[in-house]
Each structure stands twice: as structure tokens, then as C-alpha cells.
Amino acid sequence: MKLTTFSDYALRVLMYAGAAGDRLVTIEETARVYRISQSHLMKVVNVLTNAGYLRGVRGRSGGFTLARRPEEINLGAVVRVTETDFALVECFTQSNECLISSRCRLPRLLNKALAAFISTFDDYTLADIMLSEQDFAQSAPPRIAGDAPTSPARSD
Amino acid sequence: MKLTTFSDYALRVLMYAGAAGDRLVTIEETARVYRISQSHLMKVVNVLTNAGYLRGVRGRSGGFTLARRPEEINLGAVVRVTETDFALVECFTQSNECLISSRCRLPRLLNKALAAFISTFDDYTLADIMLSEQDFAQSAPPRIAGDAPTSPARSD
User: Fold this and answer.
1) Is A124 on the interface with B (CB under 8 A)?
2) Which of A62, A70, B26, B34 has the most CB atoms around it within 10 Å of its CB?
3) Which site among A5, A35, A120 would you substitute to test the B interface, given the most B Cβ atoms closer than 10 Å to its Cβ?
4) ipTM passes above 0.90
5) E strands, B2-53, where?
6) What's the pTM value of the predicted model, to 2 decimals?
7) By CA distance, what is B142's nearest residue in A?
């Protein structure tokens, strides 16, 4: 079983933005910290912004920050936004070719299991999984923009 | 979120073998009914046989059948056998590159959600999702070996 990469990244973006507090973070910086693709992250940040979890500030020194306090960001609600692809098995998809779909009792069970999975997240907010900016700084082998004075070098 | 194709197919194989009752079914026949790949199914049938859910009979008129009664096949136990890939997110894999893995609180939450997902299956046995052989026969556009007298044709 797998979460979509989209949800995985969304949770990570929120954790990173949360750790940064009021400081604006950039997609480039977040991608570098997690060693993941910027283009993929851009879509994730857009969705989280549209859903009201992130607030973007345009411009040269722009970036994004949490739009709500961490304890107001329920993880169940986030996962429901980001897990757009709830296609657990073939018959949940449009390209379904399974011939017993109309009579099969499995989808109901799978939906129940999925609901149990998601509702686990309902009991948590971002505050419950927050790390400090220090945690990220300690991890990063190159450099993290976190404590850089004004314009962090961007060569890597 | 997605179940592995392996688990999906395993549940379908058990449903089909269950519907056939004492009649031996073949991989070829099962693949045809579900319109899925024979080679993929072969691996699934092997794993289910080794785990004691299917009993294989070798030879020209061989095939497989359930090795236990449907109500003795707990679906939670099956999914635990077939979902070998419980890599919900990157940091659950060996190729993990996420830099905060050692401090991250997300894995614990994900494991809890995964346990809730799986434990839903624990409440069900194959008997709960069984269909009749009729259900499969009604679905199939070509022909199903189900009611064929002795040696079902194998041309397709």
C-alpha cells in the first residue's frame, strides 16, 4: 500500500513551513532540504495554497508560509485534499475492466478500510508532527537557508 | 492511496476459487475471467499456495482450489501476506533520501493509520465477500470454463 507522492510531499511541505514559523520559505529551498523535485513541489504548494493551508507572497524575496496555526491544520483534512487518487484497486478507476464489479463486495470493505486509514489522521494536527527549524538544519548536508543572513547562496 | 496489484489479484483469485467450490480452476481461466495477466497471476497463486490458502493439483487436468473453507480464510491475514510492500512513503523504503527521517514523527502516525486499514480486514473472512459461480458466468463475455463438461476449450 502506498500514499500518493503528492500527499507525502504535502505533509513534508507543511512540516517545513511550520518549522520556519513566520519566515517565508521557497519551493527551491524546500526541494533542496528534502532532495525532491521542484516541479512536483510547485503543484503541491499550489494545492495547499488554494486549500488555505499555505499563504504565498509573490516577488523576489517571496515565498510561502503557513496560513493557519499548526494546531489548526487537521491532518485528516489535508490528506482528504491531497489524496485525490483514492483508487485503491482497479475497479475504483475509470479504466476498470473487472467483470464482477457490479456484484463484487470487495469495494465496500476497501472503502471501510480506507475510511479507517484516513480517520487516523483526523486525530492529529500539524502541531503533533512538527519539528523545529533546528531539526532540519542538523539534517541538511549542504546548507539550509534558515539561518542565512540575507541572500543565501544558491549554488548546488 | 493504492493497494498493491498483488493484493488486489490475490483477493480476486480467492474469490474466484471460492466460487468454483470443489472444481479445480486454472490460472488461464482466472486470468481470462478478470482480463488480467497470467504471468502476474502465477506469482499470486504461488504465494497463496505457499501460505496455505490454495491447494494446487498438478497435471494436465490440474489446477487449484481453496485449501480451507472460505470462513476460515481471514482477509486481514491474507492482506498481511500479500501486502509485502508496506512502503507507505519514501522513508519506509531502502532508497530513502529524506533528511529528517531520524527525527520525523510522521512514520508513527502512518503506521497507526496502516494498522487501522489492515485491521478492518481482520473482521472479515472470504465468506463475507464470496460470489457464486453464477455471478462470474453472467459477467463473462467470452466463455467461462465453469459449466463446461470435461475439457474446456483453450483457444483465445
Assistant:
1) yes
2) B34
3) A120
4) no
5) none
6) 0.75
7) A99
